[in-house]
């Protein structure tokens, strides 16, 4: 006999995930569009916005810039270099839930900016979305481990292997970039993966009453993987 209840439950989860992925796409599209609009205004004004709203180390007046600096850039090359990775990693970070992603974005902006404000030397204004890029990257790489989602773990492994070179500009002494902002963003992303982890208990059994099947004490990794792929509509 076909288990129509189980099929309906799987279809329901898949529909929710597709809906979240659709929202994640439009959120990231809107966000990237926003920073390009800001760039147009900024460039037309001789980059006064970057000078006035960047993070200045140790300057109390620049603390609000922890939230504005990720929207600003110093040149067209600067924003072009950030836009692609920002969209890709942002989408991967957001497709499991946009609300959680917004909290992650706030956390990463604060940790990236705080690292610059606390530890950078000199009165240089620091702006750019690269701190968010590194935060989303760190989140995507480790999220699956904290959430115990096999598909997300596999995505994290692929991203880590494909973009490991990014870590070369998040180490002390990297010239020409704000490596502190990168390292702060990366730290915020890993912290966010733990803080925003999925705390819900996952079970295979039904609800109350006597009709539910007793969940297995040790789930098969292959069965978990098949379930994740089914949730994504890939099986």
Helix/strand layout:
Layout: H1 4-44, H2 48-52, H3 65-68, H4 76-94, H5 98-119, H6 130-147, H7 150-162, H8 179-195, H9 221-231
Helix pairs in contact: 1-4, 4-6, 5-6, 5-8, 6-7, 6-8
What this model shows, in words?
The chain has 235 residues and is mainly alpha-helical. It has one domain (4-199, 222-231): Rhomboid-like fold, CATH 1.20.1540. The protein is 64% helix and 0% strand. It is built from nine helices and no strands. The model is unreliable at 201-218 (pLDDT under 50).
What is the number of independent domains? Answer: 1
What is the share of helical residues?
55-70%
Distance between the termini: 20 Å
Question: What would the principal axes of the Cα set say about the shape?
Answer: globular
List low-confidence stretches: 201-218
CATH class: Mainly Alpha
User: Overall pLDDT, averaged?
Assistant: 84
State the order of secondary-structure elements, H for helix, E for strand. Answer: HHHHHHHHH
Largest sheet: none
- Number of DSSP strand runs: 0
CATH superfamily: Rhomboid-like
Any idea what the CATH architecture is?
Up-down Bundle
Rg, alpha carbons: 21 Å
How much strand content do the residues show? under 5%
- Number of DSSP helices? 9
Could you give a short description of this structure?
By secondary structure, this protein is an all-alpha fold. The chain contains nine helices and no strands.
Task: Fill in the keyword field for this structure.
9 helices; Rhomboid-like fold; 0% strand; mainly alpha; globular; 235 residues
């Amino acid at each position: 006999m076909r288990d129509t209840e189980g099929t309906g439950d799987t279809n329901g989860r898949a529909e929710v995930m597709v809906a979240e992925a659709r929202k994640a796409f439009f959120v990231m599209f809107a966000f990237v569009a926003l920073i390009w609009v800001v760039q147009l205004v900024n460039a037309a004004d001789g980059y006064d916005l970057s000078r006035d709203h960047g993070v200045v180390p140790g300057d109390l007046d620049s603390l609000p810039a922890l939230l504005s600096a990720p929207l600003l850039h110093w040149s067209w090359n600067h924003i072009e270099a950030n836009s692609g990775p920002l969209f890709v990693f942002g989408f991967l970070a957001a497709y499991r839930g946009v609300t959680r992603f917004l909290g992650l974005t706030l956390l990463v902006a604060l940790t990236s900016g705080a690292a610059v404000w606390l530890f950078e030397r000199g009165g240089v204004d620091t702006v750019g979305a690269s701190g968010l890029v590194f935060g989303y990257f760190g989140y995507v790489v480790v999220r699956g481990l904290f959430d115990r989602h096999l598909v997300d773990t596999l995505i994290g492994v692929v991203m880590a292997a494909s973009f490991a070179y990014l870590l070369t500009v998040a180490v002390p002494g990297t010239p020409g970039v704000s490596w502190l902002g990168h390292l702060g963003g990366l730290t915020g992303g890993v912290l966010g993966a733990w803080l925003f982890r999925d705390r819900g208990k996952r079970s295979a059994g039904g609800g109350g009453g006597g009709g539910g099947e007793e969940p297995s004490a040790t789930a098969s990794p292959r069965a978990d993987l098949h379930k994740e792929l089914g949730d994504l509509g890939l099986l």
